[in-house]
Specification:
- There is one protein chain.
- This protein is of the alpha+beta class and 94 residues long.
- It is elongated, with a radius of gyration of 15 Å.
- The chain contains 3 helices and 3 strands.
- Helix content is 28%, strand content 17%.
- Helix 1 (7-17) packs parallel to helix 2.
- The protein starts with 6 loop residues before the first helix and ends in a 10-residue tail after the last helix.
- It has helices at residues 7-17, 50-59, 80-84, and strands at residues 25-30, 38-41, 65-70.
- It has a single domain, classed as Peptidyl-tRNA hydrolase (Rossmann fold), CATH 3.40.50.
């Protein structure tokens, strides 16, 4: 539940340090971006990411930088909880 309320601490941070939205950079995982890929955007929607929905809501607009780190591009719909909380196999990259 806490991850879905990310906007609250982001807003408090912004107010405490008195910074504008265009100076904020949010780095987050994105299920809609292919695993291992990175996308950088200055503005945009929150997609399926509830934490980003919270940030957009709390900041009052979408005008902040975001770095999206792809975790998987699924072809079929499935429960995201199962994806995020499954155990990963260790890879040997030798």
């Amino acid at each position: 539940m806490y991850m879905n309320l990310s906007g609250i601490p982001v807003k408090k941070f912004k107010e405490f340090f008195k910074i504008d939205n265009d100076k904020i950079i949010i780095i987050h995982d994105d299920i809609d971006v292919e695993e291992g890929k990175i996308k950088i955007r200055k503005t945009g929607g929150s997609g399926t990411h509830n934490g980003m929905k919270s940030i957009v809501h709390e900041l009052g607009n979408k005008e902040f930088y975001r770095i999206k780190i792809g975790v998987r591009k699924t072809k079929r719909k499935r429960r995201l909880g199962r994806f995020y909380f499954k155990k990963y196999k260790r890879q040997n990259n030798n």
